[in-house]
Amino acid sequence: MKLKCIPEDFVVTEISHRQPSAGPFSLYRMEKRSIGTPEALQIVQRSWNLSPQQLSHAGMKDRHAVTSQLVTIRNGPKAPFAHDLFDLQHLGQTDSAIGAADIGGNRFEIVLRSLASDDVSRIQSRTDHVAAHGFPNYFDEQRFGSLGPSLEFVAAKWCLKDYERALWLAIAEYNSHDDADARTQKQILRDLWGQWPECKQQLNRSHRRSIVTYLVDHPTNFRKAFALLNEGLRGIYLSAFQSAVWNRMASASMVAASDAVYMQIGDTQGDCTLSHLPNRTFARYVSSQAALSLLFLIPTLAVDSFFRRLNAVRRRMLKFISAWPLRILD
């Protein structure tokens, strides 16, 4: 089974009840292909000479997909915006910035390729069951794009009050999504970490340099330095860690409900396999491929039992995190 062979194989449409009315916020529909929500809005921000605080959206949409969502811009132009990978259509005005509370959900249109004939029949036979009982839905690998080679979550160190390590992970650790400039700047930070005056001299003007400038005068106040990170970035780090906790809880409950399910990270890219192994190890995250593969296994699970067990695991969440090994509280 193959997923997301081309962007059109994964279509996401945001469902919102927000309608144009009147007010200082311009309301737009953004349709994009092969670009992430933050990257698209950054292009709009630069092109229209806006501040980041003027732009709002209700949720991130997949990069490797065709997606549609609403965006608001405080005092934004009453005009469309066109780009090779996305466009904005001005729908009218509204009285407040759009947020998560405005979203009723997302509609997905997914194309699966390279299915065997018996795979098709099995999926079709399970659709009624899924519609009636729901589906334990894992967060996908896109939620964990902020993870570097260490596989340490920034927010985990943040919760532990290890602000220096959290800051290092956020601004210095290599990430496969970095462009050439970011790779260069991060290498400087890794080489000169703690030597703040020398580090400042070599860095380009950026949010990293602004943080280092603060550290030149306050070399040990990593808590305040971490707070200087963009609020949106800090939100992404928190979401990644929260999502990993959810996946771990869901994995634990799935294993407890059925001996047939085991999630295992397959390689460094985050691909996963389903195995029948006895040791009940829990994955940190799984891929879309593995999540969709669960369609074949759902009839073996008692769904009501799954949710009862999930609630029990939620109450013991700190115990699971501690065994990760991560702790939120001392």
TrEMBL record:
PROSITE patterns in UniProt: TRUD, UPF0024
Domain TRUD stretches: 134-330
Sorted UniProt keywords: Isomerase, Membrane, Transmembrane, Transmembrane helix, tRNA processing
Descriptive protein name: tRNA pseudouridine synthase D
Transmembrane annotation, as ranges: 290-307
GO biological process, one term: pseudouridine synthesis
UniProt family annotation: Belongs to the pseudouridine synthase TruD family.
Xref: InterPro entries: PsdUridine_synth_cat_dom_sf, PsdUridine_synth_TruD, PsdUridine_synth_TruD_CS, PsdUridine_synth_TruD_insert, TruD_catalytic
Record flagged with keyword Lyase: no
Broad enzyme group: isomerase
Pfam annotation, one family: TruD
Source organism: Fuerstiella marisgermanici
Domain of life: Bacteria
Documented EC number(s): 5.4.99.27
A single MF term (Gene Ontology): tRNA pseudouridine(13) synthase activity
